[in-house]
């Protein structure tokens, strides 16, 4: 693994291997603390958009493992504006040992990876959010074990988070359903990739409109904001379209009795997810957020070649 840009770049075995390593590092952290495997290593973190979880969990992942992280704000770097992405990648390759980048355009993180001599991690783009997908899979396996055939349902916008959830689900042999309003479907290329993966793993894929139909038999109900970062001018329009896709108690009651409810956060409470569900017995949103830390330690360890 040279970079970590998309879950679809990994084999099913590689995905499971990362998850197993994450479990090991999580246990170790809570028992005696992690070993300083990242001693002397620094992660450069480029952010073109705001972040709580990604920023703090990567920073703490590096510190827990004996390394360090450097936050580079949008204003300082001016990715592609103050300086070309190719030049930034080549300069930073001489200063830090890996890069994590949160960008608007997916092409920009690919360009960084193309020009850097050090590993590049995609910390969210307009196309996908693979670090989130790995933490999500870790959370799902903690709740249901490693078996195939789980039903994972995403309700809402066919966005970046949905792409990575679809790809990790198909890699692990889970069935994936998206219920989205017309005009808010998943990226067709991401669907093609998932269909190819599903042929090998026998996952079933469904793309439908009706959230009620989508959650029947679901072991996982996942939702995310109706308006992603960079789409703010569409907020008013989206607030009119998405209310039938709210994850509320009625919808949760229509799923499997042991369903878990997931959200990558930040949540817009009582829009895509009600307080009752977010704080209710089926919700795993906080353990899920905490799993970012453990999943990312595994990704970093593999990229650094130290575990
Ligand atoms: N889920 C997630 O990536 O959160 P942040 O935007 O706060 O990093
Ligand atoms: N889909 C959301 C995820 C935030 C972590 C966004 O891109 O804003």
Model description:
The chain is α/β, with parallel strands linked by helices and 307 residues long. The protein folds into 2 domains: 7-129 and 291-304, Rossmann fold (3-Layer(aba) Sandwich), CATH 3.40.50.1370; 132-288, Aspartate/ornithine carbamoyltransferase (Rossmann fold), CATH 3.40.50.1370. It has 13 helices and 9 strands. Strands 7-6-5-8-9 form a 5-stranded parallel β-sheet. A 4-stranded parallel β-sheet has the order 2-1-3-4, with helices on both faces. Helix 1 crosses helix 13, helix 2 (53-64) packs across helix 13 and helix 6 packs across helix 7 (160-171). The radius of gyration is 19 Å and the shape is globular. Bound molecules: phosphoric acid mono(formamide)ester and norvaline. Phosphoric acid mono(formamide)ester (CP) is lined by residues 51-54, 124, 132, 264-266.
